[in-house]
Amino acid sequence: MEEWTRCDPLTRFYTFLVNQNILTETEEEQIHKDVVTEFDAAFSAYETLPPPTPDRQFKTVYAEPTPQLQQQEAQLMQELGLEQD
After folding, report:
1. CA distances, 20 to each of 6, 7, 12, 26, 29 (Å)
2. For residue range 30-81, what is the model confidence (pLDDT) as tens digits?
């Protein structure tokens, strides 16, 4: 596993950037903080969304659902006692 770790392209690229003085550790730490902040904001926004409806998987995956998917959706909605859109 150690050999594969040395071959990791992200680690190698990071090392290259640092060795070429393109990226400093301080800049890398700031980038990391910025990414964490952006992720936390996106996750918080996601948490405020209402829960998805059971039929959402059928509405958002395919532009044109197959007859089998339409049948599965109808069966699910019937089993859940919900009306189909």
Report:
1. 18, 19, 12, 15, 17
2. 999 999 999 999 999 999 999 988 888 888 888 898 999 999 999 999 999 8
CB-based contacts of 12, cutoff 8 Å, min separation 6: 6
- Please state, in angstroms and rounded to a whole number, the distance separating the CA atoms of residues 25 and 33: 12
**Tokens 């089998």, located at residue:** 68
Domain extents in the chain: 2-47, 52-85
Query: Strands, DSSP E only, in the chain?
Result: none
**pLDDT tens-digit profile of 20-43?**
999 999 999 999 999 999 999 999
